[in-house]
Each structure stands twice: as structure tokens, then as C-alpha cells.
Design a protein that fits this description.
Low-confidence stretches: none
Shape: globular
Number of domains: 1
Number of strands: 3
Strand content: 35-45%
Helix content: 10-25%
Strand order of the largest sheet: 1-2-3
Order of helices and strands: EEEH
Distance between the termini: 21 Å
Length: 49
């Protein structure tokens, strides 16, 4: 798996099915922080925490 960097900020996050679920807002120490789309199911939002 590729390491996440600042170059990934502002990229769209998609599911394996191609559904967009959010946007990368920050990357710190290889961890991406995602702003979830308002329309995604609450169960998926809780997994993104």
C-alpha cells in the first residue's frame, strides 16, 4: 500500500464500488483525515470517525 503524504490532501475518497464518500483534508504521519460527504450513510460515517 502506498504511503499517504501531503500530496493526497484534497483528493476524493471512494469505496471499492466507486462511490465518493469524502475528501482528504489533512495527512499527518501517514494518516489521512477525511471530511465525509453529508449524503453517506451514518454507519459508514462512524467507520470513518
Amino acid at each position: 500500500m502506498a504511503e499517504l503524504t501531503d500530496d493526497d490532501v484534497s483528493k476524493h475518497v471512494v469505496t471499492a464500488d466507486g462511490d465518493e464518500v469524502g475528501l482528504v483534508t489533512d495527512v499527518e504521519d501517514g494518516t489521512a483525515y477525511v471530511d465525509p460527504d453529508r449524503d453517506i450513510p451514518s454507519q459508514l460515517k462512524s467507520k470513518l470517525n
